[in-house]
Amino acid sequence: MKNSWIFILIFWCWTACSGPKEKQEQLTLPMEVAKAYGYENFKNIKSIHYTWNVQIDSARQIARTWTWNIPERVVHYTGQDTSMQYSLTEVNEGLEKMDHSFINDKYWLMFPFQLAWDRGYEYEVEKKSNAPISGQPCTRLTIIYPQDKGYTPGDAYDLFIDDNNMIMEWVYRKGNGSKGRAYTWEGVKQYGGIKLATEHKNEAGEMKIWFSDIQVK
User: Fold this and answer.
1) Are 75 and 85 in contact (CB under 8 A)?
2) CA triplet 4, 97, 59: central angle to 5 degrees?
3) Domains in the chain, ordered, with CATH?
4) What is the DSSP letter of 81?
């Protein structure tokens, strides 16, 4: 599927589904972003159900539906051809492709919370920056993951955040390379005390990734 990597990103995953540890409760800028999206209320969430949709081109669209049972660390998947359930504590070689997809889709929906959950990343802050799509003044927060951990080590994310620590746009850079593509973070809605961005558009203003049927319990 030519150039599908633009949308179906295999995101870095290292203890991505674990809960936050006390040492990361300090108010770093990543934690402030997590809190802006309601991180403190996430402890009350038992399950999240959603469908991740991506428009590959004018003729091709992909949809994947997930239900994440958080206390039991179990994921249920429904796609076009199959459905299955697996435990996040028992991911083996046969489940890695499915787990890659779950992590990818979850990062598009819940990346602010990953800033609290994930371990070992470095970050850089540039206070005076401009968002790549809108050109609006903002703060650029760059997250750089370790070179020796996860599915795709060394990936980087440039988050362009407003004065309320909400993400306006982001750029994913595979392997911390110099190039990436910018997408918006919009359609923010509140579910059970947490905020989720439900729409991601490209520089042309085309809806490329969006979420539907979101249920938070």
Assistant:
1) yes
2) 30
3) 25-216 (2.50.20)
4) S
